[in-house]
Amino acid sequence: KKITRYEDCTEKDDFIIFFWKALEEFTDEERSLYLKFVWGRSRMPTYAESYTHRVSYKRSSNPDATLPVAHTCFFQLELPPYSSVEKAKEKLRYAIKNCMVIDLSLIHISEPTRPERISYAVFCLKKK
Hints:
Elements: E1 4-7, H1 14-25, H2 28-39, E2 53-57, E3 69-71, E4 76-79, H3 85-98, H4 118-123
Parallel strand pairs: 1-2, 2-4
Antiparallel strand pairs: 3-4
Helix pairs in contact: 1-3, 2-3
């Protein structure tokens, strides 16, 4: 939390509070997977204070059906405004456990009838 900076949101927003509660309830393995998802590494560096973890508001017409998006080059998470801790845990767990592709933002994969799923296809290709 000490190295987190917020964009288009604050630490007092409900969905940010839900995000931190979700991470606090994760196992050590899940927290390690979160770091790998958002940063590409499974643990924090020795001098973590020299890094900035960014969390930004991800606009969505249906936040509870939207997955978070990570930008590992920038140690950044785009987080939809989930309605509860449980929903935050569900979506974060899905993202960290099913993300198979890191930083393929140049690939444009989407379902023709559901263009809003581009980030899902790019960042969280489901394991076979």
